[in-house]
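Show me a record, fold above all:
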Amino acid sequence: MRFRLQKRAALLDAGMEPYPVKPERTHLLTEIRERFADLATGESSGQDVAVVGRVVFIRNSGKLCFATLQEGNGTRLQLMLSLAEVGADSLAQWKSLVDLGDHVQVHGEVISSRRGELSVMAKAWTMASKALRPLPTLHAGLNEETRVRQRYVDLMVREEARSMVRTRAAITRTLRDTLHAHDYVEVETPILQLVHGGATARPFETHLNAFDQKMTLRIALELYLKRAVVGGIDRVYEIGRIFRNEGVDSTHSPEFTMLECYEAYADQFVMADRMKEMILACADLLGSRTLETSKGTVELDGEWAWLGVYPGLSAAVGQDVTPDTGLDELRSVAERHEVSLDPAWGAEKVVLELFSEIVEPTLIQPTFVYDYPPSAQPLARPHREDPRLIEAWDLIIGGMERGTAFSELIDPVVQRRRLTEQSRQAAAGDDEAMQLDEDFLRALEYGAPPMGGIGLGIDRLVMLFTDVGIRESILFPILKPEAGQ
């Protein structure tokens, strides 16, 4: 860095701006590669261009210097500087002032070298941005921790990192397109909220000085989107950042992206069709409905299975487990299968823990896990046939939950009872329990239409299609501070 700072000073002393405001550029490197792809070996095009790029390779030797420029999408193009074309002073400045990582602007003719390499033969060059830190190589100084902590460097040197950004953007765009085809309206709802709800999760807390009011960051999109449906926006969705003050591991991040959508006069089965359509559209965009993952091959084509929570758990543990199974019996099942339990958990919570530990990891092919006990989702409506259950499902693919959906609870009396119970749990010390949201209940009291709703984790969907951990799927994930910060 000391040497590079000296070169920056030398540029200024020579009257050259190390960080000009807008270097001339007539063509992208991609455009030159496309337009002159058929230029024969050794030929000159007769076309002058002005190009800009980052220097990722440099070889300075005698009267002819070579470099490779790279632009943002990873396209590269060779650059040639000869004594005869640029002159002695300019060539000497190039050799003494340009380093790997610098952005340079070059004016010259498009040619094909004697080895058939499409190139720009420079007539003049200027610095576009002097890099003060050296680039790492692919084989040293760029371990996983460095890649996620300094993603900007990762993007410079690894095509896989750039591809991840494009893949995630394509997936998000496809989800939007699929919903728009069904006349969904995209909206934005508050991130700062007075009451946290819509999920069972511990929120981040903050303070609004203007009102001298404690606030939380949202843990879900649900409650405001349902207000919109009450108001007459019959098909509504949002793709937004969610914040949960919880653990960090290979599948969880405190800050992540959710898609939630709600449709009037739909139920959990309609929403299953919507979910499948969205995921298949993403698969088709990326080129295959067969996914090779670390958990095995996933086939997205064909029918997706439906598995009840209690029948699925019963089959896995070799004994009949129903909503009426007692807590002591469930604890003995947990002990036999070495599943740790919190002594404060009731029977329904124990069933959910047993299922998530014993059954869920084995569900590699797309499976809608449904018929949950009521405590699993306080915002889902009672089952139409069995009052001991609710109408909700989780979609498991590759042994991991990817999304969830409900036939939504719209009865304000039952919803008030459920949220009151949640608030009691919060008062008793449950940091994840929802609060009683009087405004949301007031909205339901104006008459909400029957509706279905989906929650789809964008990060986990990207993980499914790319087979990476959550830190790789998020462009700039939350990390522990570096030492000294």
